[in-house]
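Entry 14. Structure prediction run on the chain below.
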Amino acid sequence: GRTRSAAAKRFKVTPTGKVMRRHAGRSHLLTKKSSRRKRRMAGEVPLSSSDARRALRMLSGQR
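Output returned:
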């Protein structure tokens, strides 16, 4: 089938096979958030294993 484009925009698969996601809440209304909070939302984090399986199934058009 086709790749779910919604999933393709949100998740990246690393060479080792982990599915990475961004933190929520980092796009707007940033002035009221503390610098520490914004810093902690900066990187990407791996999906939990059950979510990763679902994400990979939605990305299966590519992989």
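The chain has one domain: 5-58.
Filed with the rest of this week's runs.
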